[in-house]
Every structure is written in structure tokens, then in C-alpha cells.
Amino acid sequence: MKSMNWKTLLIGAALGIGVSAYANAAQTIRFAHVDPADWTSSKKGAAAEMFKDVVEARTDMDVKLYPAGSLGDEDELVQQAMDGTTQVVMVSGAMSKICPAAGVLSIPYMFDSAVTAWRVLDGQFGDQLAQHCLEQTGLRTLGYGETGFRNFTNDVRPIETPADMKGLKFRVQDIPLYVKMVEALGGEPTPIAWSELPTALSTGVVDGQENPVGTIYNNNLYELQDYMTLDQHIYGTDFILINERFYQSLSKADQRVLKKAGVMAGYMGRSIQQMTTAKGLKAVKEAGMNVYKPTPEEMDKFRKAAQPPVVEWLKKDLGDESVWIKKLQSAVDEVEQ
User: Is 174 inside any structural domain?
Assistant: First the structure.
């Protein structure tokens, strides 16, 4: 009987060590993104630092950061998160590839300001979209950040209305929605890889491009372009995602901390993005770039030209999930009212 008891205790101890080792290993969170690490200028870098500080201050978990695409591009990061090899990732465009409903956030001229977008994402619509994407992907949205409003630049002439875009070649991402948008506005969309953009601009392969102000400034694109139009055609959203299996393995108390950390990280990313936009806008003006802000009447022309054809295309592309277009529009209308 004593021998049996000792065997039982030894087996139990061995199992306990194994479980303890697994639990300890599970307490290290890998957080990856593709932006630079510097929190003072990088929206994702700032969000990641905030997440790390909050989690490590309020739990026994450690957060290891992998910035600047050190673990791969956004498509690779979301796959790692779905597999569970990387617990938390922060991505933007890649989200609509795994959860198509997220693509409705890229409808041109949907948001009149960043504040409107924040209220929509932080409200019922954002909660419903997060739940829908969780069910589709196994990734829980802990918070929403932003990549900023995208604006057109070119080196030919000022753009004040869609008519001014006619005949101009614009570099766009290889995303059908962006191609449809530029076509609808009268421009000639030309999908080109990001790495090839400076050469394409300097050699005249394209006349212009579109990106957030911070990106235009930080990558010196303003040196290759004379005109910027602050039309804010697409608002870019960052998603802070966590593997659901990992999340459910945590205590309720730790889950609450991670959720709070995700929300705070999103706020931090938004703040840095707004700061870099303001600084970038001031800098490009001081460098001599012609910056034009369309009037409300001119903005209405941009909206009426681009939004209907893109929405029609998106309805066909999304199929049954096109219901999210109406949900988003209703949420925007409610916030604006």
C-alpha cells in the first residue's frame, strides 16, 4: 500500500511539473506587427508598447514584442495567430482577407472624421464585427487602432474635384476596391508594389499615389510629388487580435486585463497616428508642397462619384455578407446624428 502511494505521488508530481511547465510557457505572449518599433512615430509600435506595459504591470505574464515584420508580413502574421504560434498580432489590410465583412470599413468617404470612425468602432457596430470575425477566424479583436486617412498626391496639377483626376495615373495597392475607387473618380489605377513606388514616381510610370499623410512624410514621398489633396478617401483600421484558444486558457482576471490592454493600445495607436499626421502635414507644407482641402461641396462630388460604384461592387463580392454595408452605414448615420 505504501509502495502504491509513493508511485501515485511520483506520477502526480511528474504530471504537476508538466502542467506547470506548460502553464509557465503559456504566460509568455508574442506580440507581432509590421511597423517600426519606435513608439514616438509608429502607431503600431506605440500600441504594442502600451499593451506590453499594461499586461506586465497587472499580470504575471511577459509580453515579447516582434516589430518591423520580423515574423513576416501581415498575411503571415494572421496565419500565425490563427495557428497559435504567435498569440497577439496587430494588422490592418490583412483582416478583410480572413474576415471579408471587415472590408466594408474601406468604403470610400464613409467617415467624415477620425472621431466618427472611433465612435463607430468603439460602439455596437465594432462589437458586432468583432464577434462575427471571431466566429469566422478564431481570432478575438481586443481593440481597434488606426492607420489613418488616405489622401491623393501627384506631380501634375492640383486636384480639387474628381474632374481633375481624369487622365492621371495613380499607384494603388493590388486590391480590387482601390482599383474600382480610382476608376470611379476618373483616374487610371496602376497596382504597384510598395517597394517599387519611389522608382515608379521618379520615372513617371505613375503620376501620383495615395497614402496617409504620415506615410507620405516619413517615406519622403513628398519630395517626389508637388500636390496633395486632403480628400480622406479611405480610413484605415488596425485590428489588435488574439488567438481565442490562448485567450480562453487564461483566468477571467487575466482576460479582463488583456481586453483592457487591447483597448488602451488601440487608443495609443490612434494618438500617435494623429500626432504624426499633424507633424507630417506641417512638414510637407514647409517643404513647399501644395496642400489642398476640398470644400464640403467638393467633398460631396468625390463621395457621389466613388461610393456608389464601389458599394455595388462590394455587394457582389461579399454576397451574403453584404449586410455589413447597411450595418456600417446605419452606425455612421447614428453617430453623425
Answer: yes
Pull the grid cell for residue 188.
Answer: 487610371
Q: Does residue 139 contact residue 78 with C-beta atoms inside 8 Å?
A: yes
CB atoms within 10 A of CB 166: 10
CA 333 to CA 337: how far, in whole Å? 6
Is residue 52 a contact partner of residue 202, using CB atoms and an 8 Å limit?
no
What letter would DSSP give residue 105?
A: G
Residue 80 · residue 71 · CB < 8 Å: yes
Mean pLDDT of the chain: 93
For helices 124-137 and 323-336, give the axis angle rounded to 10 degrees.
Answer: 160
Determine the Cα–Cα distance for residues 299 and 280; give it in Å rounded to an integer.
22
Local structure of 190: helix, strand or coil: strand
- Is residue 5 in some structural domain? no
Spell out the residues 6+ positions from residue 239 whose beta carbon is closer than 8 angstroms to its own. Answer: 90, 91, 92, 95, 102, 141, 144, 145
Q: 255-284, pLDDT tens digit by residue?
A: 999 999 999 999 999 999 999 999 999 999
- Beta strand 88-91 with 227-243: parallel, antiparallel or unpaired? antiparallel
Strand ranges (E), the chain: 28-32, 62-66, 88-91, 139-154, 169-172, 188-191, 208-212, 227-243, 290-292
CATH code where residue 41 lies: 3.40.190.170
